[in-house]
Model the fold of this input.
Amino acid sequence: MFYDCDDLRTDEIFLRLVKTAEEQPQKRWLPAYYFEICLPDGTTIGHCDLRIGHNEKTYIGGNIGYGIEEAYRGHRYAAKACALLFHQARKHGMDYLIITCVPDNAASARTCEIAGGRYLETAAIPSDNEMYAEGKRAVKIFRFDL
Done:
């Protein structure tokens, strides 16, 4: 079940729902929302997604993913989008979220800190994970208590 997203906005940004995806148990994928991050005038400046629930894949891949277009970086838009996604996760009764990043992505790690994450560990990516196939071998794991 997916919830309304019309309230995912601040004075600086809003999240425009692009699509939702149902759970795919055979792939261990959880239900997910996919958004564009937009300025008040509708300009798309990035994207983010929210995976609902927890399993071994979200511990490594995270409940949230995000990216900001290069021209719009440096304004903490990713952290602001995360705060809106935290609100959406609470609608689903989630009490914590995981966000991960590769160890050399200092900007993403800083976003996690700004958004209130607590660093848990740097973990090896299992060889059966899609991220491993992309050449990634480890992730920094942050927990966000909602």
Notes: The mean pLDDT is 97. The radius of gyration is 15 Å.
